[in-house]
Amino acid sequence: MRTLTGLGVAMITPFSKDFKIDYAAAERLVEHLIAGGTDFLLALGTTGEPATLSEQERANYLRFVIERTNGRKPVIVGVGGNNTQAVVDAIAKLPKSGIEAVLSVAPYYNKPTQRGIIQHFKTIAQHSHLPIIVYNVPGRTGVNMTADTTLELAHSERNIVAAKEASGNISQMGYILRDRPKDFVVLSGDDNLLLPELAIGADGVISVFGNAFPQHFARLIALAREQRYPDAAVLHGQLLHFIDLLFAEGNPCGIKAAMTCLGIAQNVLRLPLVPISDTLMQKMQREVDALSAISA
User: Measured by CB atoms within 10 angstroms of the end CB, which terminus of the chain is less buried, N or C?
Assistant: First the structure.
């Protein structure tokens, strides 16, 4: 498996005005991400609105991303759910080549116990032909994967190779980093906490922000790796307001608006998501203009 560290971007799925997948925009997005220093791409994560895509649309979009990336960067794919067997079945249908790993979110809505989460991921890992990245995002799933749960999975399942930690709890991140196996990768899932989490040892990020300005997060990660934290802190401060705007009315509503400001994709989402308010859009345009002027 190719190394999945540094800047990963949770790609949007661009839509045209008739709500079909806009493959011309998707091609622009792939090239924008690679040119901007992205280390690996995530297709069909939450930011990609997979819940509103048909099975065939998901397969077609994933195939397009793999083909357009053409091995230049690793591609991972989001496959998760609250029916363990359905997740196992979906992973089994994935292409046998072109994908480095599966990002799988903790079961949502059911609110399983920690023991249930462990058995869910063990079952997936033992049946998957691809490495698994476990994804903790309690703000969406309704249940937190504790550090002990992540660590048990990391130490017991060789096919679970990484974690995306988006609890917003730096202490929890710290315990995972302290006690993880040597080669287990830990990625931030909180754009606003990227710098402090890099400072305590995180290996990178799977980012929403990176869709718009991958070069700025690539630079932030490089500065942290060089331990140039005063310079990194200045850049981090310049990016914070834009990050807050991205999530002010939900994700991917904010990032799709930003991508429209950049001329990469149209501001179209599938229901139940809707475009951000006009007031927020005005703020977004001003912030996009400001960040576009920052040298990476």
Answer: N
